[in-house]
Write a structure and sequence with these properties.
Blueprint (H helix, E strand, L loop, with lengths): L7 E7 L2 H10 L7 E7 L17 E8 L6 H13 L4 E3 L3 E4 L2 E11 L4 E9 L25 H15 L4 H9 L8 E5 L4 E8 L5 E4 L5 E4 L3 E4 L3
Parallel strand pairs: 1-2
Antiparallel strand pairs: 2-3, 3-7, 4-5, 5-6, 6-7, 8-9, 8-12, 9-10, 10-11
Helix pairs in contact: 2-3, 2-4
């Protein structure tokens, strides 16, 4: 099996590392191919949101996976949290938080029938938060490291991904549950329907379980989940 991160294409500026990785995957690039960029001009996250990537302090990367793992969003989130440190927590399904602020996001795209996925990860390794758009001021965070640490963080993350992406689903779930940022906390969710309740962890398929005020348990496979205001 090709090691993750080999071969590597590093770009000074690109629209999105996921876009470039998708092109390479469609052209036959091997498992483990890595695309990184010092700056993205059109990075994106889940639900079509823009992922801001200031030059110098952010890791923007995408991996081509031709051997998709079990529960890829959860496994990737655990790997990012491993690299980020013991204080990192995961907001379902795969936002990584430190001190309640989002320091990393994950976007998985691809064509499973064609046998590949692109795993996109953005991490605020050494971001000056004053560089971010005003709308992110209350939610975005940074690992607070030096800009020179981006490459060493990438090496740590690739090692964590090598380990987590090959683990059985049960071990991934155990590690994810140990970092669950929403467990037993009040949340709101949408779609497929608006709702609210208490987050009760994830099931064996990686779905978030929410206990509603009536005692019903709803399993969410997708959608947006937010902590309810205190």
């Amino acid at each position: 099996m090709t090691a993750l991160g080999t071969p590597r294409l590093h770009l000074r500026v690109t629209t999105s590392t996921n876009d470039r990785a998708r092109e390479l995957a469609e052209a036959g690039a091997p498992h483990g191919t890595l695309v990184t960029a010092a700056e993205q001009t059109a990075g994106r996250g889940r639900q079509g949101r823009r992922w801001s990537t200031p030059a110098g302090g952010t890791l923007a990367m995408s991996l081509i996976l031709r051997e998709p793992p079990a529960l890829p969003p959860l496994a990737a989130a655990v790997a990012v949290a491993d690299a980020a440190g013991p204080a990192a927590r995961i907001k379902w399904p795969n936002d990584v938080l430190v001190d309640g602020r989002k320091v990393a996001g994950i976007l998985i795209e691809g064509r499973p029938p064609a046998g590949w996925l692109v795993l996109g990860i953005g991490v605020n390794v050494a971001v000056d938060l004053t560089q971010l758009p005003p709308e992110l001021a209350g939610t975005a965070g940074s690992l607070g490291r030096d800009p020179r640490d981006v490459e060493s963080f990438l090496a740590d993350l690739l090692a964590a991904l090598e380990a987590r992406l090959t683990q059985p689903a049960a071990e991934v779930l155990e590690a994810w549950r140990a970092r669950d940022a929403l467990l037993d906390r009040p949340v709101t969710y949408a779609p497929p329907a608006d709702g609210a309740g208490i987050a009760r962890g994830v099931d064996d398929d990686g779905r978030l379980i929410v206990e509603t005020p009536t005692g019903e348990r709803v399993a969410l496979a997708a959608g947006e989940v937010h902590l309810s205001p205190s």
